[in-house]
């Protein structure tokens, strides 16, 4: 009985973060909507500045749970970002946590409010957030879908396609697609500084036989089942990126060949001392509570205050319902 209770409590560790993150969604959407209306007749730069700040507040709260709450250790390798830049972030895709990794790097450059994502079409239909996320860009996962070692048919199809196209076959990543990367680069190149080629590995994703297993989901991550995240960064100046799509396709595949070699070293190295880490020196980067706790307190307090009155509760529920419907309608119109 006691053991069952302990196991049940262990599995419920993700409930509090999920409740706070989802529960504060209407508060965030209301704040954003109010500012959108108030700023309608102001110069766009005023709207953008506050919009970025609101987004930064919410994402900082997200990082409170994904970093401070879980206690995960962040190990950085390669070209460590120092100054804020206009970038395209290219990364391998293996988990629903991957978009958090972009936030983890952005907050260390004081650029969290500026992070935008390229997401699957299906994610545009998320309640409240889908409409907002569907307009975002910069963070790109060129594989198009998550790499899962248990989905052998997906991996085999990706490897077969690469072989048919005369491209090197990859083991720990899928064959990348160039379209989103090319469109983003072509659109942003006039004010882009660099591309960050980011390779991510979650420690604890090897089974007893030494085989790679599925990366942690959001729920598993919030249950503190990932002790360390290893992040390797290559900064590529925009002048070193080919502009023509046909050449960029080859360049992008070469970048994923480099990722694959890093991951082969991480998962498959014959030397146990070289496994579970990337080559080179790592930096243990700890996120200060000063950057995340204030956002948690602000949004939680505003949400609690709204729920304490009948009028506030009605507004809260209506925001969930009508916000979702309006967002879906907007996505349908733009589709």
Automatic annotation (TrEMBL):
Signal peptide span: none
Molecular functions per Gene Ontology: acyltransferase activity
Record's keyword annotation contains Glycoprotein: no
Residue ranges annotated for the Phospholipid/glycerol acyltransferase domain, each copy included: 87-182
InterPro entries attached to this UniProt entry: Acyltransf_C (IPR032098), Plipid/glycerol_acylTrfase (IPR002123)
Highest taxon of the lineage: Eukaryota
Record-annotated membrane-spanning stretches: none
Entry keywords, A to Z: Acyltransferase, Lipid biosynthesis, Lipid metabolism, Phospholipid biosynthesis, Phospholipid metabolism, Transferase
Pfam short name (any one): Acyltransf_C
Protein family according to the UniProt entry: Belongs to the 1-acyl-sn-glycerol-3-phosphate acyltransferase family.
Name used for this protein in its record: 1-acyl-sn-glycerol-3-phosphate acyltransferase epsilon isoform X2
Native species: Equus przewalskii (Przewalski's horse)
